From TrEMBL:
Segments forming a coiled coil: none
Segments passing through the bilayer: 12-30, 124-146, 152-173, 207-228
Protein name, entry field: Zinc metallopeptidase
Organism of origin: Anaerosacchariphilus hominis
Entry keywords, A to Z: Membrane, Transmembrane, Transmembrane helix
A Pfam family reported for this protein in Swiss-Prot or TrEMBL: Zn_peptidase_2
Length: 235
């Protein structure tokens, strides 16, 4: 039913807006926290790359390469190629923030080496989750074009749910990597006292970006269920 000047107001857009706000807040939080602790130099004087090398060797991992990758906070562990990539602001930096990020990525390498199940499950979900998020809306739209096909709409929602599942499985993987990082940095004597507390704040802020992504995905899925669940009931 049209409102105002002939436009239809969809109240479910509020869910999308909430998701956007949460994501923007989390992104701003990690940037400001990282910026703050990137100015705090560690007493060890080690760079992110050196710390990563020490952590990997201390855990008996010798077949993971450490590479320098362009960009800011583009750090990641590639389990397929056994490569740990550190960004410009981490690789050569001696800051508390950089060492925390490097240790976090090493946490993923340790997970991989120890066959950590949530990481294996997440890696297996990557191709189906990517396909699901890309194909969901086109299939739903086709369902609407072809006489409100419930089958296609249901299939689209199911495919979208795979992306949501991926976001949820990512949470324990990321939290565990951060816990491993903090424990390793302390046990190896790389960081001390206030340095550890600063690193915890950096990694906690980073973890919130994954929580925000999961929340936004859940809200989007809820919107789909509200929009098309009601349609199916009317049919």
């Amino acid at each position: 039913m049209p409102y105002g000047y002939g436009y239809y107001f969809d109240p479910t857009y509020v869910l999308v807006l909430i998701g956007v706000i949460i994501s923007l807040w989390a992104s701003a939080k990690v940037k400001t926290t990282y910026s703050k602790y990137s100015r705090v130099r560690s007493m060890s004087g080690l760079t992110g790359a050196q710390v990563a090398d020490q952590i990997l060797r201390a855990n008996g991992i010798y077949d993971v390469r450490i590479e320098h990758v362009s960009g800011e906070l583009t750090d990641h562990y590639d389990p397929k190629n056994r490569v740990l990539r550190l960004s410009n602001v981490v690789y050569n930096s001696t800051s508390v923030a950089a060492l925390g990020v490097a240790a976090h990525e090493c946490g993923h390498a340790v997970q991989d080496d120890k066959d950590y199940f949530p990481l294996r499950f997440r890696n297996a979900l990557v191709p189906v989750a990517n396909f699901g998020t890309q194909a969901a809306w086109p299939i739903i739209i086709l369902g609407l074009i072809f006489g409100s096909s419930n089958f296609l709409i249901n299939l689209g929602i199911l495919l979208f749910s795979l992306g949501v599942l991926f976001q949820l499985v990512t949470l324990p993987v990321e939290f565990d990597a951060s816990h491993r990082a903090i424990r390793i940095l302390g046990n190896m004597g790389i960081l001390y006292g206030d340095e550890i507390r600063g690193t915890k704040k950096v990694l906690s802020a980073a973890a919130m970006t994954y929580v925000a992504a999961a929340a936004a995905s859940i809200l989007s899925l809820l919107r789909l269920l509200i929009l098309f669940g009601g349609r199916r009931n009317r049919d």
